[in-house]
Amino acid sequence: MNKEKKPRLFLGPMSANLVQSVIDISDEYEPIGLIPSRRQIEWDGGYVNNWKTKEFVDLLRNHNKTITLQRDHGGPMQGAQPDDGLISFQNDCASGFDIIHVDPWKTVDNIEDATSKTIEGIRLINSFNDAVLYEIGTEQAIFPYSAEEMDYFASKVLEGVKHLSDKIIYLVVQTGTKISSNKNTGNYSPRKMIEMVKVCNKKGLLSKEHNGDYLSDFEITDRFKNGLDSINIAPEMGYNESVLLMKLMANKPKLIDEWYKICIKSEKWKKWVADEREAEDVTKIISITGHYTFSHPDFQKIKKALNVDNVDAKIISHHKNKILKILKNINAGVSKIKNV
Question: Using CA atoms, how far apart are residues 155 and 207, in angstroms rounded to an integer?
Fold first, then answer.
């Protein structure tokens, strides 16, 4: 993968409709990256369209070969069930992911252990498939680090896999982002962004920020003006599809109530809601957890009962408009990039 041709935008495949939107945009405008988590798409299935890893990769390769496929947060304790991540790595390599994010940070409490486990993960993956590229580091919500700590970590990893160092493409920068409910509640620091981008540039790595959801036009543009190379956006896209579906159900409150019950029963809302009393807010619960239920048989019945012509086409069009707006803001920042 040529670093000069990397995608600036990576999206979580929150639904089959969003995946189709990414295929269309990549065909018509510019390639986008897809970053399935282990819970979304995994070797034994996931909540997104019930896709298994190889099935998903084959689907994308058959439709568009320019889309970059990256495993997001690959590694131990990152799946739906506790594990060491080994089988997931093996299947990702066999299926043909372009990039794997090696993220053991949920299992460590210090930089040294994170470094050694990242090195171990890269060596292991390379033994399965020597064509795979890598992203290292993690987001602030999992394990916060300073620019100095990130510099130390990246240096040690690059040194530890010296013969593979040119295959490490991305380093995750942390600039204050944090997602809660349907808001970005972090405190973005332009100074920290610039410091971390300088570290990435010094190491010859591309900077990638996670949790780029729910940002204003200015907040996206400013990040790229300050030198950010790529950004991940995921929950916001699921939120947008759920909100649109609720609007289409506005005159059918019974369907909304049935959907709400499915969302509550899934218990996925507990990840995003700090106060359990908020579980009584029907609109909020559906908007932040509805995407987890899109493949549920009972939701499929609800969607059919909605009886809206070309409902998926409407959703795809909605996604494409949002993606194009994000790309416009990214490109506006790139055109004003500072010397960092």
Answer: 15
Residue 293 DSSP one-character state: G
Ordered by start, the domain boundaries in the chain are 7-233+316-335, 238-308
What CATH number does domain 7-233+316-335 carry, 3.40.640.10, 3.20.20.70, 3.40.50.2300, 2.30.30.40?
A: 3.20.20.70
Q: What is the pLDDT of residues 149-202, one digit of tens each?
A: 999 999 999 999 999 999 999 999 999 988 988 899 888 999 999 999 999 999
Helix/strand/coil for 102: strand
Structure tokens that stand for 150 in this block: 């990130």
DSSP three-state, residue 63: helix
What pairing do the DSSP bridges indicate for beta strands 183-184 and 179-180? antiparallel
d(CA 96, CA 140): 28
pTM above 0.90, yes or no: yes
Q: Which residues contact 286 (CB under 8 A, 6 or more apart)?
A: 242, 246, 256, 259, 260, 263
Contacts of 318 (CB under 8 A, 6+ apart): 240, 241, 244
Cα separation, 244 vs 238, whole angstroms: 10
Place of tokens 């049935």: 258
Q: Which two tokens stand for residue 301?
A: 């019945």
- Give the mean pLDDT of 2-12: 84
